Amino acid sequence: MSVGSELRRAREGRKISLQAVCDKTRIPVKYLEALEEDHFDLFPSQAHAKGFIRAYAKVVGLETADLMKAFKTQVEPVVAKITPPNPESEISSGLSFPFFKKKPQLIRRERISDEAFDPDVEMEAPDLPARRAPAASLTRRRLGRGAQAILLRVTFLLLLIGALVWMGPSVKRLAAGAWHGSIPTFTSSKPASSALLPGLPIKDKYQHLILKGLDQSWILVTMDGGQSSSEFDLAPGEVKSYRALQGFKVKIGNAGGVDVRFNGKPLGVLGTTGQVVEISLPPGASGS
Question: pTM for this one?
């Protein structure tokens, strides 16, 4: 039994067009034609093909179990190996400061001649003259350091005196008010804005969606009640981000191959490999 012939026979028996199947499953017509012709090599992965076969079978009223068995006999299975991320490696790679990195020990090799292994030859260390800096250069260095220290002290004193002169009248008025018990208070008629207070967070008006590919998967994202949409194939390691005012409606052709994050909260994978999943974010929001 051919999977494509069974799908086509069931569709023609119910007098359903390919465009009608496309409208119900949101699967492009080119992929539907490839299913009916058993051209499974045109799909990004076998997970795509299985998910599309299940969606197609539901529309034309076929049992997916028999189709999956026929698919396994027609196509050799390909095991997709996903390596989970290693948190320790990510933490170590994130420490970019030089004092956190362990420097490799340098091993220096000295060139030793054959004479060093001759027991009859006595090796004597040559007398190397000690390199000393001239006395005049040391004196200049000490004088330079002393001049820099004096210059820094003088600059600090001048800045302190200038600050006292500039703030003198204000300090006198404040001291006089504190002495007589009449410290002026400053009031403002305008209410304090939450944007000016450092402790209050500012709420973002958008809904944020982040999709990360773990395996090849077809995805359709609809935003704000159908005002805009995006249909694409998400490759492993690829990341897509969206924002909307009301919410999203997401349809995933391979639910086990996509990691979902909504408004900063990880939702993880929404199903198994090859499963077609459709979800609204936030729950109850109209995406289309």
Answer: 0.33
